[in-house]
Sequence to fold (190 residues):
Amino acid sequence: MGNDDNPIALDLKMVDPLPEETRKYFDLCEQKLGMVPNVLKAYAFDIDKLNTFTAMYNELMLGDSGLSKLEREMIAVVVSSINRCWYCQVAHGAAVRQLSGDPKLGEAMVMNYRAAELEPRQRAMLDFTTKLTESSDRIEEQDREALRKAGFSDRDIFDIASVAAFFNMTNRVAAATDMQPNEAYHGAYR
Fold:
């Protein structure tokens, strides 16, 4: 198992010294989160890859969307639960606990979202996310129509798919590199 100083098992070292913009970004993370997430440290061996990753993450998870931040985090956790991504289950499970103010919801998202008390809109979104993750080739118009009936616009459907696809990709990178979650995530917002 890795730790905060060794975020991945592969011998990829952060660029030293970090470029000024990257150092400022890491300082901002430290200020807001109390840590630099290991996923960022893992990508910091190649600043272009780090910048691409953070730009995509920030756009999908923090940008304008008809999906709330909590809903986007729920998608991240459900995808990561299906893929058994240790890093993202821990990190995004903590985010669900924080944003919802409900530790039980964060745990249910990690273990089995179907056991959670969810609004019909959220259930529809996560059912779609599950199907997209497990068998994307089986998505049909009726799946998109179920989301529309739950109150999602076509733009929202695009955002659901984009968040799910992003975490399917990052889960695989985390697994391949043995990326480990920061210790601080484990006890956060309980």
Notes: The chain has a mean pLDDT of 92. The CA atoms of residues 22 and 47 lie 8 Å apart. Residues 154-177 form the longest helix (24 residues). The radius of gyration is 17 Å.
